[in-house]
Amino acid sequence: MSIEKISSAASFGGTQDVYRHDSAATGTPMEFSVYLPPGADGGAKLPCLFWLSGLTCTWENFTVKAGAQRYAAEHGVIIIAPDTSPRGDGVPDSADEYDFGKGAGFYVSATQEPWKKHYQMERYVAEELPALVFENFPADPARTGISGHSMGGHGALTLAMKNPSTFKTVSAFAPIVSPINCPWGHKALGRYIGEDQSAWAAYDACSLVESKGWHGDILVDQGDADNFLAEQLKPELLKDACEKAGVPLSLNMQPGYDHSYYFIASFIGNHIAWHAERL
């Protein structure tokens, strides 16, 4: 699979690069960022962390705002940040809605028209992108984790539970833990997957942890001043589901923090260290 480097910058002794490639999953060009820590050209395979961003984002939000490169360099971790949805003139959109369409792929594989042709983000992130990364970069397939924020936290949790052979560790910031039980989820799943709510459980972290379990522990950070906490995020549902499933969950409610990248930048170092220790 061929990839094209479109930018590169030195960062904390490593390099922050951005690549473009033609995706078979989405049928569109896709971009993703790659941070390679110091020594990545030394021939050894390194642990790798995939980061999934939230609504309205691209790879750029995390790459520019989170300050992750410093910690990835310190721990020798590669970080991969894909886009959040397919892009392009031929991709259907709902331009007047920030929480659906372009920028809001929800990491599902759509089954409904007109979305199913291009909105195959589950297949892209869980299958195509890892294969591309393992082929082109010194990332160790046996030491790969996943994390994300908000919609991306939902993606990280669900994709990890459905693909435990690919993703060995999982954490999240302010995740949408149960799309079945929030307005964002009802809109996205209702349109991408269809009105039959029995099919939605496959994209609900609370349902999945009860049905599939998880082979390790889970780390979640959530700001208690988050505007979306009560209506959309509901971390207490994940706490209850993990308790029922016997899955260890560290749910850290962070006083005074909101939903922004200031929150992510404050705790991303803890998450990278947590993944590095387990990988």
CATH architecture: 3-Layer(aba) Sandwich
CATH superfamily: Alpha/Beta hydrolase fold, catalytic domain
Tally of domains: 1
Provide the β-strand percentage band.
15-25%
CATH class: Alpha Beta
Span between termini:
26 Å
> Strand-and-helix sequence, N→C?
EEEEHHEHEHEHHEHHEH
Tally of DSSP β-strands: 9
**Main β sheet profile:** 9 strands, mixed
Query: What's the helix count?
Result: 9
Describe this structure as you would to a colleague:
This protein has 279 residues and is α/β, with parallel strands linked by helices. 34% of the residues lie in helices and 23% in strands. The protein has a single domain (4-278), classed as Rossmann fold. The protein is built from nine helices and nine strands. The chain has a nine-stranded mixed beta sheet, with helices on both faces. Helix 6 (205-212) runs parallel beside helix 8 (235-245). The protein is globular. The model has no long low-confidence stretch (mean pLDDT 97).
